[in-house]
Amino acid sequence: MHPFSSDTPWEGVTEVEYVARMGVALVTGASTGIGKATAIRLAREPGTELVLVARREELLRELADSLPCRATYVAVDLTDDDAPQRVRAHFEAEHDGALQLLVNNAGAAWRGSFAEVGYANVHRHMELNFDAVVRLTEALLPLLRASAPSALVNVASTAGRVARARTGSYSASKFALIGWTDALHAEEAPNGVHVGMVLPGFIRTEGFPATELREKALTRWVVSEPEKVAEAIYECGPGGRAERYVPRPYGVFAALRILSPWLVRRVLGGGAASSLTTSTAAEREQTPDQS
């Protein structure tokens, strides 16, 4: 359901009017990659103010200074106990408590089979990719409701629909995010808060460079760019879409997982799946990359 249709709390509000009223947008993981591209994309819209959230203050400051709209930032590790309260306090102090768009983008991945890395790897994925999103949303949901019509976009992953060997912990965190997002959409639509979701595949970013895939002619085509994800985020936020795969053909694999699970398991369990193996920045650093 489009948020500007006549049977929703956005009745009588056109998309152009919504963007003009959108005011303040928050992007997590904003210093590089998808988050940075999203901030640049949103800054093009009239009336936008941005709040940039990530760990690296210098990169946030540089990005904020380069944008054509007002932009403030909060340098924080979203897994810290006080992170949600710090972000909310920033809104109340700097933006009068207004929040029209929340983009939960920060995340990371560490590869490894369950036998090798065990519960500890599951825990750190859930802590950043799911728990931190839920905790931040809980703190900011009252602001979104008070600012309605408003929108929230969760950046999940195609790995939240189709899992591969050695990525089970990452997929588990994204499966959880997808299920929670669908429920939140149903709960918040009557309150004027549209909840959308973007499911990227392989995207060339600092955290997920996909170097192995880009170096091979056979797999180069499966890697997309952060700017395309940023456009999808806009479509699923102010644009009112329910969800978007990036690149779009990745949606076929998710459909096959439902229609023919045996085939998907056979393909992903065979040698062809090894050609889709990549390393991540988080693995090299062994610290969460929230960009």
Number of helices: 11
Low-confidence stretches: 1-10, 14-20
Distance between the termini: 32 Å
Lateral strand order in the biggest sheet:
3-2-1-4-5-6-9
Compute the number of strand runs.
9
Q: Give the overall silhouette.
A: globular
Largest sheet: 7 strands, parallel
Q: What would CATH call the class? A: Alpha Beta
Write up what this structure looks like.
It is globular and about 55 Å long. It is built from eleven helices and nine strands. Helix 2 crosses helix 8 and helix 9 packs across helix 10. Helix content is 45%, strand content 14%. It has a seven-stranded parallel beta sheet with strand order 3-2-1-4-5-6-9, with helices on both faces. The protein has a single domain, classed as Rossmann fold.
What are its keywords?
single chain, two-stranded parallel sheet, Rossmann fold
In short:
Helices cover 45% and strands 14% of the residues.
Give me the secondary-structure topology.
Elements: H1 15-22, E1 24-28, H2 33-42, E2 49-54, H3 57-66, E3 71-75, H4 83-94, E4 101-104, H5 114-146, E5 150-155, H6 168-188, E6 193-200, E7 202-203, H7 211-214, E8 223-224, H8 226-236, E9 243-246, H9 250-259, H10 261-268, H11 281-285
Parallel strand pairs: 1-2, 1-4, 2-3, 4-5, 5-6, 6-9, 7-8
